[in-house]
Specification:
about 575 residues; 22 helices; disordered N terminus; 4-stranded mixed beta sheet
Length: about 575
């Protein structure tokens, strides 16, 4: 009788167990739970048996425990499985026969694999953007004329045409060009000097347009995380719209690049050099204004107030490029991939105050984004305050700041025209930032893919310089169209701005260099590549000595003459 009761109870338990509910929490493995009805059945049966025989109770409980232990295997969520793969129903079998144990169902549908999914789809051949059987740069220029990828080999008209559009990145639209999505010939005419420089020619060579590197790697899955200053900025948009898809095409999707930004990762900017050096970040945009205190040579690009026009600043930028790259590779532990050419980056003072004269700068609480810019503001009599880019809008809205300084395009992207009445300026600039990859990450990339990255980086710069022609013209007008009033700096403000560079910016930079105790190489770089264009020479004591301009578009003049024109 006891054996029969035990068998009946065990049948009841197993039948209820067969109807158990499977639950699975996100990120956790599946587990088998019993329903409330099953628990009630077991409790009632045990209570009834306890009255008859304590020993029988112990035996039943032991068997129940053993059965649960044996059946406690991982199962998937309770999604109905197709066809005959559904386990048999929990209908009790006749007689004392015990139902079959929960034999695992075959195949991966029952036990999901824990192997991570690949970061991107299996490589599929894509149309390559590299030329096929190109015999000369002229033939290449003819093939790609009139749109993205166009190069200059003597016919400026071939650069005119659409900017990067929805064909490359639907979310970006045509903002990279003019209001019609074009790079027009009149804008290119105003910037022909860009395409006739030695630097532009060096990019054509680096891109290996006639003899591109052949893809030999197969089956690689290289995923890089790139961090740019802000994804709303034009050069970051262009990176996603142009460089990323070109890399995936050239490498047959063996190299994939995800783009993030400083605000998304909570970066202030000053920590970027450290984070790329120690490998926390794979790939990053390095702005010398953020890291200039630690690497003063990078601040050579941002000696505010020295540049009377774009052509002068571009000549300085390209002249010092090799020295800057040496700092990135030798001291920061990263590989320089390419440059962002930040066209349309003249600095404007967005404010509710119109700055008509030097006196209007006195006591002006102004956002700064670099140490050198703070020095310039201090020399103008303003009160500089570093504020993260994304925080400037509310600071000006609440009156914490009297003015915010940035380029016309960045200001437009952040809608500063909503909280200010005037764009005062400009403080002339043709800036660039550096895109670099951590050394260890770089060393893990096969040689052919490394070379393709460098070649496509050069093509990215060529395209950025094509777009620079219109981006130096349209951003100011776009802000005006949004409702802000443009207040152009007077000759007095421009002259005081140069004096502030001489009396405040350069001395502060020299002090951070530790010169003359250290920094001799950087001062030599200044005297060789900067001095001829701005008419200033740093002597052995660290003082800025005025000289005549001997190179660039203003050779033979003094800076005072240039600013008065």
């Amino acid at each position: 009788m006891r054996s029969f009761l035990a068998a009946v109870l065990l049948i009841t338990v197993l039948a209820a167990l067969a109807c158990g509910v499977v639950t699975e929490e996100p990120g956790e493995g599946s587990q088998l739970d019993r329903t409330p009805d099953l628990a009630a059945t077991v409790e009632a049966s045990v209570e009834a048996t306890r009255v008859a025989d304590v020993a029988l109770q112990a035996t039943i409980e032991a068997r129940v425990a053993a059965t649960l232990t044996a059946s406690g295997q991982t199962r998937p969520t309770a999604t109905p499985l197709p066809g005959p793969t559904i386990p048999p129903s929990a209908t009790p079998l006749p007689g004392p026969t015990i139902p079959p144990t929960a034999t695992p169902l075959p195949g991966p549908t029952f036990y999901p694999t824990a192997t991570p999914l690949p970061p991107f789809p299996t490589p599929t051949p894509l149309p390559t953007l590299s030329p096929l059987e190109i015999l000369s740069l002229t033939e290449y220029a003819d093939r790609y004329a009139g749109g993205p990828g166009a190069i200059y080999v003597g016919d400026l008209g071939q650069l005119a045409g659409p900017a990067v559009t929805e064909e490359y990145m639907p979310s970006h639209g045509t903002i990279l060009g003019d209001d019609n999505g074009q790079v027009p010939l009149y804008a290119l005419d105003q910037h022909q000097w860009i395409y006739e420089t030695d630097y532009y020619q060096s990019l054509l060579e680096k891109a290996k347009i006639i003899d591109p590197t052949q893809l030999v790697s197969r089956g690689e899955r290289i995923s890089l995380q790139h961090t740019c200053i802000n994804r709303l900025l034009l050069w970051c948009r262009m990176f996603e719209a142009y460089f990323v898809p070109n890399i995936e095409a050239r490498t047959n999707r063996q190299v994939h690049i995800d783009v993030s930004s400083f605000p998304e990762l909570g970066l202030a900017g000053f920590d970027t050099a450290y984070l790329i050096a120690n490998g926390t970040l794979d790939m990053i945009e390095i702005y010398g204004g953020y890291v200039g205190a630690e690497y003063p040579v990078l601040s050579l690009q941002y000696l505010w107030g020295l540049w009377p026009d774009h052509q002068t600043h571009f000549a300085v930028q390209t002249g010092i490029a090799a020295e800057l790259d040496t700092v990135i590779t030798g001291e920061m532990g990263a590989q320089v991939l390419m440059r962002n050419w930040i066209a349309g980056d003249d600095q404007y003072f967005f404010s509710n105050l119109r700055l008509n004269s030097p006196a209007d700068f006195r006591g002006l609480k102004t956002r700064s984004h670099s140490t050198e810019l703070s020095d310039w503001l201090d020399g103008m009599g303003a009160e500089s305050q570093f504020v993260a880019f994304a925080e400037v809008y509310p600071a000006m809205e609440r009156g914490i700041l009297d003015a915010g300084v940035t380029g016309a395009n960045p200001g437009l992207s952040q809608r500063w025209y909503e909280v200010t009445d005037y764009m005062n300026g400009p403080l002339t600039s043709f800036n660039s930032t550096i895109i670099a990859i951590n050394d260890q990450v770089w060393d893990g990339i096969p040689g052919d893919l490394q070379q393709i990255l460098l070649e496509e980086g050069a093509k990215f710069e060529l395209e950025a310089l094509r777009l620079a022609a219109i981006q130096n013209i349209t951003p100011l007008q776009r802000n005006i169209d949004a409702g802000i009033e443009y207040a152009e700096f007077s000759t007095e403000i421009r002259t005081l701005g140069f004096e502030s560079a001489v009396e405040s910016v350069i001395p502060g930079w020299i002090k951070r260099l530790g010169y003359p105790r250290s920094g001799h190489g950087t001062v030599e770089t200044f005297n060789e590549h900067v001095s001829p264009y701005v008419g200033l020479y740093i002597d052995e004591n660290g003082s800025a000595v005025r000289t005549g301009i001997t190179a660039g578009p203003h050779a033979g003049k003094t800076m005072e003459q240039v600013l008065a024109e």
